[in-house]
Amino acid sequence: MPEGDTVYRAAVHLNTALAGRPLTVCDIRVPKYAAVDLTGETVDEVVSRGKHLLTRVGELSIHSHLKMEGSWHIYRHGTRWRRPAYQARIVLENADWVTVGFDLGTLEVLRREDEDEVVGHLGPDVLGPDWDAEEAVRRLAAQESREIDVALLDQRTLAGLGNVYVNELCFLRGVLPQRPVGEVKDLPAVVALAHRLILANRDRVERTTTGDMRPGRQTYVYGREGKPCRRCGTRIRHGMLGATALSERDTYWCPSCQT
Predict the structure, then answer these.
(1) Is 188 a catalytic residue?
(2) Most exposed of 104, 195, 202, 205 (fewest Cβ within 10 Å)?
(3) Is 2 a catalytic residue?
(4) φ, ψ of residue 191 in degrees (nearest 5)
(5) Which pTM does this prediction carry?
(6) Active site includes 3?
(7) For 59-77, what is each residue's pLDDT tens digit?
């Protein structure tokens, strides 16, 4: 699933293409909203909230979430789409641009005043203008019996972190992902590093937590099962971790550097 930095960039690019321009085409290919036609209306803005996207048009908001397979594309008129048309769930066009949402995991139209119904449960947004580190620490500390990996992935704790960042964050803080939150020292430092990591990668497509952009050198533990730890040489281990069986995610750690 795309992480918060990917969704943030999508919002920035969509906002550049759509904001302040009237729609010439509004084609929503979801039966429940097929009759919604915003043609002629001006897009006010496109913003991200954690892993959610909100396209605000007048009194309405188009809420989308990429989930596992979704993506938003932006094309010049006449450009061939890079994904098949049958995967398109929404097409928004203006005089200059064509924007297409493919295989979106969530797509709905709601009144702007009702946005809290879909994003109000989220914790502080690590890339939001209203980022609140103290509130993120408070929410994290309240889950003292949960594994630190699971608590950080919970979007109600802080919004925007995904599996890559959480695995790398645990390594950088020297903490086993399975360790209960109540046994993790200096939670403010964990939250502060989470914010710095994602902020550093916010504006680039290829993320890195090591500072090295070369292929195969961009992460410390994530996706490196059986390979030597970049710090101590111990083989990286892999397991599955989640709040439920359905929410389990791949987890990577160094058994020597993380305790």
Answers:
(1) no
(2) 205
(3) yes
(4) -65, -40
(5) 0.94
(6) yes
(7) 999 999 999 899 999 999 9
